Amino acid sequence: MKYSTFSLLDNDQLKEPMFFGQSVNVARYDQQKYPIFEQLIEKQLSFFWRPEEVDVSQDRSDYRNLPDHEKHIFISNLKYQILLDSIQGRSPNVAFLPLVSLPELETWIETWSFSETIHSRSYTHIIRNIVNDPAVVFDDIMRNQHIIERATDISKYYDDLIQYTLLYTKLGAGTHTVNGKTHQVNLFELKRKLYLCMMSVNVLEAIRFYVSFACSFAFAERRLMEGNAKIIRLIARDEALHLVATQHIINIMQEGKDDPEMAEVARSCHAESIKMFKHAAQQEKEWAKYLFKDGSMIGLNNVILDQYIEYITNHRMRAVGLEPAFEKATHNPIPWINAWTSSDNVQVAPQEVEVSSYLVGQINSEISADDLGDFEL
Amino acid sequence: MKKAIQISTEDLVFQLDPSETLLEGLERTGHQVEYQCRSGYCGSCRVTLHSGRVEYQEQPLAYLQENEILPCCCRPLEPLEVSVGLITKAKKSA
Ligand code: FES
Ligand SMILES: [Fe+2]
Ligand SMILES: [Fe+2]
User: Fold this and answer.
1) Residues of B in contact with A241 (CB under 8 A)
2) How far is A185 from A165, CA to CA, in rounded Å?
């Protein structure tokens, strides 16, 4: 396996596996081994949006009037999202493109990463509007212990894969000593690193964003920071698609029809995959604690967010063939969030229009109204 | 004329109106179902189908195991048995 930006070997692309086959030469979509990736590309393109088109001007005065502990919640979530999208805007390209061998999957990866750069740019749009000096927010990201702690957990799987790919493509399988450090290099291990990386991206897009989403929508339920919520809805719509794409990739790997060895790789990573989900859930709970350290917000608190994290973790684990980690978390404590992440009409807040899903969400929350008993303002 | 189709869940049996999707029917009857896109691309609503057949107007983008369906966009062709429970029950066990 040697990477080339245009492999001169004439091959039948329909016979290549998703990864580790011959590097893609002709970018063609007239024939596809997995039409799903072409469909995902089309969907993602149809979702295209520009942050500048979303009016966030009202948020400025909303933000100014927030009590300090809610300012902390709002800004901290933004910082965390900035970190996540900084990683996502580049890493799928850097890590996966050298390994991919199908044109439709290659283009999906690029389309996916590109949409993350829109998310990144939208944060600057939001921040410029609410504070006079955006640098105050941006500069703190690299200095905030609570954010940086998690950055390493997310980037390490990408970095591992990228480093190991370099060793494998440069030196091939075998035992190699580079700068005094010995590396055992083989294709199976490289495949494991790819699988684990894909799983960690899945975890990132499946769980890590949702605490922030919940807070953003909790503000918007009170008609505060609605410009921000509009942007978050557009982001959530994109993220749902990204999530489905990695679920497809992971499931195709597990099935082993695409690359029989991948099924074995998946089995060997089973325990670690479960650990990854649990670890992320734990970190998100700690994040919730940090967010609410000076006080919770109306409609949300630590306990509710913890339940929510466990609930969606179960849900996401099931989607990639893992048994749910939290036996007791069988119900969604904040069903109203679904109305906000629903994409019936992303331009308009659920309350402003009779979006079918929102009305249904209302009914849902009425049913679970006794839930509200256990949180205090 | 289309007619109502019987849906059996873990906790009750109800008639799905021809004008509603399976997701809407499950919500109307108080079941614990997730959703996000309501149009077949996010996979949030997926549930396990124990018996019966469904069809899709358009092939959904979400990943599905053989025994799973998407209530937001599938069309039941015959009585279905799905593994979904009531919200009230889910809460009790929580
Ligand atoms: S709600 Fe998205 S697939 Fe059904
Ligand atoms: Fe993103
Ligand atoms: Fe994403």
Assistant:
1) 41-42, 61
2) 9
For the stretch A194-253, pLDDT in tens is 999 999 999 999 999 899 999 999 999 999 999 999 999 999 999 999 999 999 999 999
d(CA A332, CA B38): 17
Spatial separation of the C-alpha atoms in residues A59 and A80, rounded to whole Å: 19
ipTM score here?
0.93
pLDDT at site A23 = 95
Nearest CA among A106, A92, A76 for reference residue A16: A106
A329, A365, A319, A324: which is closest to A217 by C-alpha? A365
- The chain A residue lying nearest B61, using CA atoms, is A36
CA distance A108 to A43: 11
Nearest CA-CA distance, residue A105 and chain B, Å: 15
Chain B touched by A345 (CB under 8 Å): no
- Write the residue in B34, B63, B91 that is nearest to A247 by C-beta: B63
Q: What pairs with residue A181 in β-bridges?
A: A178
The pTM score is 0.91
Query: What span, in angstroms and rounded, lies between the C-alpha atoms of A350 and A370?
Result: 22
What does the pLDDT read at residue B90?
77
How many residue pairs bridge chain A and chain B with CB atoms within 8 Å of each other?
Answer: 79
Q: What does the alpha-carbon distance between residue A162 and residue A170 come to, in Å, rounded to a whole number?
A: 12
Q: What is the pLDDT of residue A362?
A: 39
Q: Quick check: B24 and A363 CB within 8 A? A: no
Mutate which of B47, B86, B91 to disrupt the A interface (most A C-beta within 10 Å)? B91
What is the nearest CA distance from A17 to chain B, expressed in angstroms? 19
Who lines ligand 1 at CB under 6 A? B 35-38, 40-45, 62, 70, 72
pLDDT at A260: 98
From the number of C-beta atoms within 10 Å of its C-beta (0-12, 13-18, 19+), residue B7 rates as buried
Integer Rg of chain A from CA: 22
Whether residue A374 is predicted with pLDDT greater than 70 in this model: the reply is no
Phi then psi dihedrals of residue A370, to 5 deg:
-70, -15
Q: Tell me, what amino acid is at A132?
A: N
Q: Alpha-carbon distance A264 to A258, whole Å?
A: 12
Q: Which parts of chain A fold into alpha helices (H)?
A: 35-46, 58-65, 68-96, 103-130, 134-141, 145-171, 187-203, 210-221, 226-255, 260-268, 270-291, 302-319, 336-341, 356-367
Return the active site residues of A: 123
- Enumerate residues 73 to 112 of chain A having a beta carbon within 8 A of any beta carbon in chain B: none
Q: What is the DSSP letter of A100?
A: B
